[in-house]
Design brief:
- By secondary structure, the protein is mostly helical.
- The chain is about 85% helix and about 0% strand.
């Protein structure tokens, strides 16, 4: 399998991950609206959603590439959090690269990608 087709599989995995992210974040927004969830619960939920979707996306990618799946899962997790960070910056969010919350979220997303790739 060529590198180009593997990158195509990663792009499909990213699209899958972002679609699932949108659905889960919409459900979370509804729950926040209905039940008035606290900011701490919301922050933890968002991070959990990111980790779960990177795991699922990397699982899909691993099934497609069939070799060095953990590396492709790592790549998916890295791209996923990088794209979210870039979008946040473009939209004017204050983004501190050295923030503990941002670093831990990035590590968790990359770890979710690694795990999803390994278990696929």
């Amino acid at each position: 399998m060529s590198i180009g087709s593997k990158i195509g599989i990663v792009i499909k995995g990213l699209i899958f991950s972002y679609v699932i992210t949108g659905v889960l974040l919409a459900i979370l927004a509804f729950l926040v609206f209905q039940f008035g969830l606290t900011e701490n619960v919301t922050d933890v939920s968002i991070t959990a959603i990111y980790v779960v979707v990177t795991f699922l996306g990397a699982f899909v990618v691993g099934k497609g590439v069939k070799e060095r799946k953990f590396l492709w899962g790592f790549f998916l997790g890295l791209l996923y959090i990088a794209i979210i960070s870039i979008v946040a910056i473009v939209l004017g969010q204050v983004f501190d690269v050295t923030s503990t919350a941002n670093l831990s979220t990035a590590v968790l997303c990359i770890g979710g990608g690694l795990l999803g790739g390994m278990l696929s």
